[in-house]
Amino acid sequence: MPITVRIRRKDGCEDVPLPRYMSEAAAGMDICAANAEPLVIEPGQIRLVPTGLYLEIPPGYEGQVRPRSGLALKHGLTIVNSPGTIDSDYRGEVGIIVGNIGEQPYTVERGSRIAQLVIAPVVRAATEIVAQLDETTRGSGGFGHTGTK
């Protein structure tokens, strides 16, 4: 059964499309930009893109902001803190931290689909200080220790 995420639009953003799933099996809803003027993101630059939305995500869930694959492949746009987290107790305007790792400037137009929003359950962990951790076959191997092929 789906959960409900309550949305409030910022005054003056009634023209910006609401987040929506673009296919029947999509995991993420596309979320749109609400910048007043075209916003140019130069190569190597990071910009905050407003959405004009305030979300009320139910307790026990989070919103994960992820890049759109087409923008990443075609233009080098990414979400710098990917996935960005929108906590269930956050009530400010959602902003998308977009970076341009491409070679050309990219212009974000008002209403353009800039990111994906995935609503996911949150598991909170307890922590425990111990003198020793259980051994595993992998041990402390990391950062490519199993080879590149």
Structure description:
The chain is mainly beta. It has a single domain (6-121), classed as Deoxyuridine triphosphatase (dUTPase) (Deoxyuridine 5'-Triphosphate Nucleotidohydrolase, Chain A). Helix content is 5%, strand content 38%. The chain is built from 1 helix and 11 strands; from the N terminus they run E-E-E-E-E-E-H-E-E-E-E-E. The strands form 3 sheets. The protein has a 5-stranded antiparallel β-sheet with strand order 2-3-11-6-8, with no helix packed on it. A 4-stranded antiparallel β-sheet has the order 1-5-9-7. Strands 4-10 form a two-stranded antiparallel ribbon. A hairpin with a 7-residue loop joins strand 2 (20-21) and strand 3. The longest helix is centred in the middle third of the chain and has 7 residues, at 69-75. The termini are far apart.
